[in-house]
Amino acid sequence: MRLPSPRMARPAQSLVPDGLEHPKYKSRRSYIGIYIICWKYALGQLAERGHYKSLSPNLSIHSLMSSHVAHLLRVRVLQELELLADCLQTRPQGSDGTTLIRRLTRAEWKSIKSTGVIPYGNAVAVVVVPPLNRDPTTKMRPQASVDAAAIRQDISTDDHTSPRPLPPLSTLHPVTEPSDHDDLPNYLPSSKVPLYNGLSLFPSRSQRAVLHARLTRLVSIERRARYREHGRPENSATPQSTEPKDKRVGGDQKASHAFLLVSDEKTALRADMAATAIALWRVRMWEGAGWEEFGGGRSGWEFRSP
User: Fold this and answer.
1) Which of 63, 86, 102 is the endpoint of a domain?
2) CA 148 to chain CA mean position, Å
3) Do 92 and 233 fall within a single domain?
4) Where is this region: Disordered (predicted)?
5) Hey, which end of the chain has fewer CB within 10 Å, N or C?
């Protein structure tokens, strides 16, 4: 981005993130730039070493660049969810047996927490997002917003009022129980599903309110599509019917705050959940998850000489 500069002086330029949002919302504007790996530490190293100045001697990086990228990566997640909802509304057919998103029951969520296994072969993510608490003074829930200024205010307020550390942004869980052969050499890692904690994934309350609203909207769209095709199911204990407004279920069959996102060859005919999963994974990478294991072999990839 070119900045205003005095006459007869070389034009000053600033390095800004571009192409992180979905093209429907904001098209790429820059044609000259550099690529870095999706890790905020890498951006810090780029700023510290100054390699970016090879593009232009008057190029600079603003101090909030890392926060700016983090904001845009989270905005991309919300954009993908909105596009997914629009797609499902225009293509509701085939929802039976190809549900892209649903709430896990309390029993299913308890099982995941106790066993550490997410036993769904087509799962691409589990996102835990409870509804936001009401303000003790105003008795109102935070307003949903993706405005950067409101988000910075949210995070700044939380830093001063919340003494408890945030949970890990994500953890990886296997889809099957460990077998008796896990001690044998394995050149390929076993399949794992990321579980995202909404509190760390979206630290801003207003932005997290948008996340919760869009996930809930998707669940409602899927539920209405099933009812439109087959009517209200007789067996109220099925996972697909355990939605918050369904009063016919109780106990461990009630819906939890965990959303299961799935993608396979059947769901791809209706909508693309993979794009949302990729957007979530980018946030995970940016915040540093997995990079500490790079090259150490602990992530499942390890070079072994024959």
Assistant:
1) 63
2) 18
3) yes
4) 155-187, 226-252
5) C
